[in-house]
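Notebook, bench 3.
Goal today: get a predicted structure for S-adenosyl-L-methionine-dependent methyltransferase from Hygrophoropsis aurantiaca so we can plan the truncation constructs. The sequence was checked against the plasmid map this morning, with no discrepancies at the termini. Length recorded as 276 residues. Pasting the sequence as submitted so the record is complete.
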Amino acid sequence: MATNVHTVAQTGFGTGTNELYDRARPSYPVASLDQIYGVAKSTGSTEGLHIVEIGAGTGIFTRAFLAHKEAETIARLKAVEPSEGMRDVFTKTVNNPIVTIQEGTFDSTGVDDGWADLVIIAQAFHWCPDYDKACAEFARILKKNGAVIFIWNLEDREGAAWVASLRDRVESHEQGTPQFRLDLWRAAFGTTSYLSSFEPQHETTYEYHLLGTVPIVTTRAQTKSYIAVLPADEKAKVVEDVKGILAKGEGMKWIDEAKGEFEYPYKTLVIVSKRK
């Protein structure tokens, strides 16, 4: 993995962790994908879309994006990912002739000047080590009317008391890492490279719930980068504590109590930054 990737990300998303990540992490709501395709139309591209996805991971977003009803408008999708382990899972799970994946980072994509209609970064930009250099790279590879899309989903602590307790428990292990919830990534919108090349960002939040079960919640908790790096005994303690939170079930809304199925509140944030 490239040396300018955060050490916790290198280890937490390193070889051997990615299959679990791919199985356990959620996809994205259709409404958010509809919005992204709407932005793509607004670029005015008269040919098939050229998409660059940076921090493509194991392909969770990519698969959802390619399964959308408007996916036929894409001509090429170049995925960029620094983790060898994630690239390996990506190549096994994304099987589409218009897609390629290569090693690269936010500020070094290896993509030609002015090639992309859209740059998409799903669940990854909070790991960016240099926002100014990244924004300069986005501007370099985008066409004149292109746009950068930042998208994240995260458990909604306001959606139920048990979710707030869950997040408090797992987030106690963050080790000072630049997590999405801390909003450190917002500094990108004040950098020289961003202000000189992009319009003010537009933000949309989607609130919804996914299917939850004890195995789903406990497994997903273990895919957090800062949980994945814990020693086995500490990780087991996290799992037991999460099970305790679920057993208490504060504010839990059942889908089918007999089957152990409940609502798992989430929010997805989409930020659109259009190239000047």
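Residues 8-17 have pLDDT under 50 and may be disordered. The CA atoms of residues 129 and 163 lie 29 Å apart.
Flagging this for group meeting.
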